[in-house]
Structures are given as structure tokens and as C-alpha cells.
Amino acid sequence: MADQDSMPDAGAPPQDFASTLERLEALVTRLESGELSLEASLTAFEQGVGLTREAQRRLDAAELKVRSLVEGGDGELEEAPFPGGAEDVR
């Protein structure tokens, strides 16, 4: 199918968060264009769901890393809540 050929490495996971976000934005643009067939739209949507999950996984991992590397006033590293983290969401 020609629509999938225009998406580089559509099946390969992106190497970093920025790449994940770029690919997700490209999929959204393609979907919003209205030029995809129904089948291609469904495939793009499925890829978008996967990319969204990958982006969330990367954000969660980054939050955990920040939590574990906060430096206290005495120079010691200590865990501190991440502002805007899950505990702030109600």
C-alpha cells in the first residue's frame, strides 16, 4: 500500500521521545488530511496508539529518573515528588 510507504520505518520503534513525538505528529497530520483510505486510516490510528503508549512510557521513565536524582540541601541525593506528577492529578 502506497500510504504506508511514505512513513519511514513505520514498524520500528523510535529511538527517543522527540522522534516518537515527531512520528505521532506526522500521523495526526496524515489522518487530518482526509486523504487516507479507511484501511490506511485504521492502520495509522493503530500506529498512533502505539506511539502514544511509547511516549507515555518514556515520560514515566523520565519522571522516575528525576524523582530518584533530586539533590537535597546537604548535597545528598534524595527522592522528592515530581511537580505535576500522578499524585497532583485529581
TrEMBL record:
In terms of one coarse class, where is the protein primarily found? cytoplasm
Cell location: Cytoplasm
UniProt KW Transferase keyword? no
Query: Recorded GO terms, molecular function?
Result: exodeoxyribonuclease VII activity
At the top level of its lineage, which domain of life is listed? Answer: Bacteria
Q: Which GO terms describe its cellular component?
A: cytosol; exodeoxyribonuclease VII complex
Q: A single Pfam family, by name?
A: Exonuc_VII_S
Give the span(s) annotated as Disordered. 71-90
Q: Which InterPro entries match?
A: Exonuc_VII_S, Exonuc_VII_ssu_sf
> Can you tell me where the transmembrane regions are?
none
- E.C. designation(s): 3.1.11.6
* Quaternary state and interactors: Heterooligomer composed of large and small subunits.
Function as written in the Swiss-Prot or TrEMBL entry: Bidirectionally degrades single-stranded DNA into large acid-insoluble oligonucleotides, which are then degraded further into small acid-soluble oligonucleotides.
Family stated for the protein in its record = Belongs to the XseB family.
Q: What is this protein called?
A: Exodeoxyribonuclease 7 small subunit
Q: What is the lineage of its organism?
A: Bacteria, Pseudomonadati, Pseudomonadota, Gammaproteobacteria, Oceanospirillales
